[in-house]
Each structure stands twice: as structure tokens, then as C-alpha cells.
Design a protein that fits this description.
Largest sheet: 5 strands, antiparallel
Shape: globular
Radius of gyration: 18 Å
Number of domains: 2
Distance between the termini: 36 Å
Structural class: alpha+beta
Length: 216
């Protein structure tokens, strides 16, 4: 499947932000000794006005850049094995003149056209200008090749999906009620960190979390 089938399954911006910010915080803590090993990365980009930037990277060549402003956002995905990859020697003919960013509002285009984000290295791009409806540049209605958006939906999934991923990737199983509290807006506290990481110094970890994310 691809963005043609998947765009309606992307959650609204508020939900997406809550999920990704929580997953990035947890992944930061899980990889606090070596942040480069994390799957979800948060960066307070100084060129991103009043917004948040999350990068999801599986370490095997696939990545997703998510830039979220107050009411607008853009997702840039790259699946290295997709036939839509700029490195694929057999790209579909229609791709020769395809512009993934066609129709992207100027406010978002200014954010993503940054060499550090490699905007030329994408297999799907989608955006929202109102926090609800996701859009993308026109692609053939018969498009049936994968573009990586399936993987993004899984990594931005709800807590049920996330817990399954945690068990599979980290072999960790946390109480659902704690994750629900955090996703619903409860800030991290020493008490919560002690429950999640009983063998660590909750006070020090809370300080590091606040320094990284500006707030816990």
C-alpha cells in the first residue's frame, strides 16, 4: 500500500503530536546512554517556528521526518527499497516529472526545503494545513507500489500498536495505564520514571528529559 490508500488513516495533528512526542521521550530514555541508537528522535529546530521536529529512523536506510507547527504539519518519508526511491534504477516513468511537494503551502515548504532533511530523498510526502485533513501531490490512481507510508502508520500507531513494537524491539512490557496517563498529558515525574525504570536514578533522568524536551 502507499499514500494513496493510507493518507486517510493518518491521525489528526493533535493525536499525532501526542503520540510521537511520547514515543520520542520514551525512546530517549531507553537510549539515554547512546541517543544515536534511538528509533524516535526529537530535535528543537531553531528554524522551525513554534513547532516540533521528530525523526524516525530504523537504522536500515528508512526514515521519516515529521515537522509539526501549531496547526500544520508535513511528513516526509523515505523507504530505501521502494521503487519510488530516487536510487531505484527502474523508477516508474511518471516519476520522471513528479514533484512530491507540489501543492505544499509555502509556510511548510520553507521548513522542509532544508538540505539537512534531504528533501530530494523521499518516497512519499503528505501534509495538513488545518490539523485534520492530509493532502499529497497527485499520483496515478492506479499506483500500487509501496512507498513506506505503511511503516510510518505503524510507528505512529496507537498505544496497542506501540506496546507490541516495544515488546518486539526492546523486549519491554510496561503497564498500559502508565502509558495512557502520559499520552493524555500527564507529565513525567520521578514517581512515573521509577515505575518505568526502577533501577535508574529517577531524579537525574527527569532532569535530562526536561533539558532535552524543554518540559517533561
Amino acid at each position: 500500500m502507499n499514500i494513496l490508500q493510507n493518507y486517510t488513516s493518518i491521525p489528526n495533528l493533535e493525536t499525532l503530536r501526542r503520540r510521537l512526542m511520547l514515543y520520542a521521550k520514551l525512546d530517549f530514555l531507553l537510549n539515554i546512554e547512546n541517543e544515536a541508537d534511538a528509533y524516535y528522535h526529537y530535535d528543537d529546530k531553531n528554524w522551525l517556528t513554534d513547532g516540533d521536529y521528530i525523526r524516525i529512523d530504523n537504522g536500515s536506510g528508512d526514515h521519516f521526518h515529521v515537522l509539526m507547527e501549531k496547526d500544520a504539519a508535513v511528513i516526509m518519508g523515505f523507504a530505501h527499497e521502494s521503487p519510488l526511491s530516487p536510487y531505484c534504477p527502474h523508477r516508474p516513468e511518471w516519476m520522471l516529472n513528479h514533484d512530491f511537494f507540489l501543492g505544499l503551502p509555502d509556510q511548510l515548504k520553507d521548513d522542509v526545503m532544508n538540505p539537512a532533511l534531504e528533501p530530494e530523498c523521499v518516497t512519499f510526502v503528505t501534509w495538513t494545513s488545518n490539523g485534520q485533513n492530509w493532502q499529497f501531490a497527485t499520483v496515478p490512481k492506479t499506483l500500487d507500489t509501496f512507498d513506506g507510508s505503511d511503516d510510518f502508520l505503524a510507528l505512529a500507531g496507537d498505544l496497542t500498536v506501540y506496546q507490541e513494537w516495544l515488546i518486539d524491539y526492546y523486549e519491554i512490557e510496561w503497564h498500559r495505564c502508565i502509558l495512557e496517563e502520559l499520552q493524555n498529558g500527564t507529565p513525567f515525574t520521578e514517581e512515573i520514571l521509577a515505575k518505568l525504570f526502577p533501577d535508574e536514578n529517577a531524579t537525574e533522568w527527569l532532569t535530562e528529559l526536561r533539558e532535552k524536551f524543554r518540559q517533561a
